[in-house]
Amino acid sequence: MTGPGGHRPLAGPVRALRAGVLGTTSLGLALGGHLAAGGARPALTLLLVCAGLLGLTAVTATARRVRLPLLVPLLGVQQALLHLVFDAGSGAAACGAVDQHAGHAAGAALSCAPGTVAMTMPGWPMTLAHVLATLATAWLLLRGEDALWALADRAVRAAAAAPTRRRPRAVVRRVAPLPALVAVSALSPAAPRGPPVPVAP
Fold it and tell me: What keywords would UniProt list here (predicted)?
């Protein structure tokens, strides 16, 4: 986008790159924190759906420069929602894998009751993991945004300070005609100089 301040990374491939980094970093660090705190790995299909939703959110967020007051609440909400989705997906996968004819205890069937997975509250290791993931994502993205915008500003200043290159034009000098320095004499060059010779009658 071109504005009063010059070119800014708000459109085109640069904005797509910013949105991709925002969505990928959010999903990757959320999944890493979830697994590090003992959570189950969600299915690949669920991860792809989450990636698509995060991508749409990132495209909206990168319509302007991403700053700390916007980034931290956005990432906090994303981490909380991703935790719930990861838990629900892993719980549904575990319940689908239970063989009801294997004579499991009633507690296993009770843990798969509707609404039980959604009502479970994360413990302090899971909460700490997602908080750290939020802070790490915010730090990485803010550093990247600062570096990208500084690079864009330097490019604008360099383009404004660069002298325009023009091809030198050939200068045609007009030479004025020299005045005649030698007067043409009416006499012959062989005529003698001196007073006129009197002629006898």
Answer: Membrane, Transmembrane, Transmembrane helix
Q: What percent of the chain has pLDDT over 70?
A: 60
Please state, in angstroms and as integers, the Cα–Cα distance from residue 38 to each residue in 35, 86, 110, 125, 127, following that order: 5, 12, 21, 8, 11
Could you tell me whether strands 2-3 and 6-7 are parallel, antiparallel, or unpaired per DSSP bridges?
A: antiparallel
Residue 172 inside a domain? The answer is no
pLDDT tens, position by position, 116-158? 444 455 678 888 888 898 898 899 888 888 888 888 888 878 8
The total domain count for the chain is 1
Q: Does residue 184 belong to any structural domain of this protein?
A: no
Residues 6+ apart with CB under 8 A from 63: 10
Task: Identify whether 149 is part of a domain.
Answer: yes
